[in-house]
C-alpha cells in the first residue's frame, strides 16, 4: 500500500503556490506510506544546452562548493548549485553523458536522482512530514508535480528505492501496486544496454516506458504498449516536461481519484488529500476507469 499524488496548475498565478498546495496532499497520504517519500517538480524550461541534475549524497558529507570548483576546473564553466543538506540541484551547460561520467568517477558517493531541462527530484526515507520539512517542499514553484509515499512490500527501504523513479530526461513515474513480471521486463531491456539501479519493480515499468519513448513512441503510445507488457496491479502516475499522465491496470484494484477545475488538476489515492484544495467542492470529481489513458498538458 502506497500513496500517490499529482498536481498540475492551469492558472499561471497559482504556480508560485505549487508547493503550498501540494504539502497537505503528500502528508494526507502518510498512513499509506510511512517509510519514505519523494516528489518530482517541473519548473521553467532551461536553455537548449543547459541541464539540471538532482543529486543525493546520502550519509556522506559533501562540500558542494568544492564540487562546484572541481566542476569548473574540469568543464571550464561554473555550475550553479542549490543545496539542501544531503541534496543539491546542479545546473550546468555541458554534455549530460560527460557530466554523469565525471560525477561517477570523482564523486562516486553521489547518486544522480534525475536529469533534464525542467525536472527537480527529491526523495528520502522518513515520514512524509519529515521529508517535506527536510527539503522545504512548501516553497516549491512550478507547473506540475508527481509525489509518492511508500510502504515497502517488495524491496528495501532506502532513498534509492523511494519514488519517483526516473529514466532518461524529464520523465518520472510513481506507482501504487505490485508488478508480477518486473524481471521479465529487465531481461528484455538489459541486453539493449539499459542499466538498472535497484531491484524495485517500479523501476522496470519506468525504464520500459522511457525506452519505448526513445524508440519513437509518444507517451500515449508507450502507455498503450504498457498495458500489453506490464502485468500486475498498478496505478501509475507519470510526469514529463509538459504532461501529467495517469493509468490503472485492467482490474483497477488500486485506488485513485481526480479533482479537476479551471485552475488545476489534482490526483491522489484518496480524497482526503484533495479536501483542502481551493474550490474543490465545485471540482469535477471522478474515479479513473481501468485501462484508460488520462493525460493532461501544461
Structural commentary:
The structure is a single chain. The protein is α+β, with helices and mostly antiparallel strands and 298 residues long. It has one domain: Glutamine Phosphoribosylpyrophosphate, subunit 1, domain 1 (4-Layer Sandwich). The strands form three sheets. Strands 7-2-8-1-14-13-15 form a seven-stranded antiparallel sheet, covered by helices on one side. A hairpin with a 4-residue loop joins strand 9 and strand 10. Helix 5 packs across helix 6 and helix 6 crosses helix 7. It starts with a strand and ends with a strand. The mean pLDDT is 96.
What distance lies between the first and last C-alpha atoms, to the nearest angstrom? Answer: 29 Å
The order of strands across the largest sheet is 7-2-8-1-14-13-15
CATH class: Alpha Beta
**How many distinct folded domains?**
1
For the biggest sheet, the summary is: 7 strands, antiparallel
Residue share in β-strands: 25-35%
The portion of residues assigned to helices is: 10-25%
User: From the alpha-carbon coordinates, what is the Rg to the nearest angstrom?
Assistant: 18 Å
Structural class: alpha+beta
Number of alpha- plus pi-helical segments: 7
Low-confidence stretches: none
Using DSSP, what is the number of strands? 16
CATH superfamily: Aminohydrolase, N-terminal nucleophile (Ntn) domain
The name CATH uses for the topology is Glutamine Phosphoribosylpyrophosphate, subunit 1, domain 1
Q: Shape, please?
A: globular
Order of H and E elements: EHEEHEEHEEHEEEHHHEEEEEE
**Average residue-wise pLDDT:** 96
Secondary-structure arrangement, i.e. CATH architecture: 4-Layer Sandwich
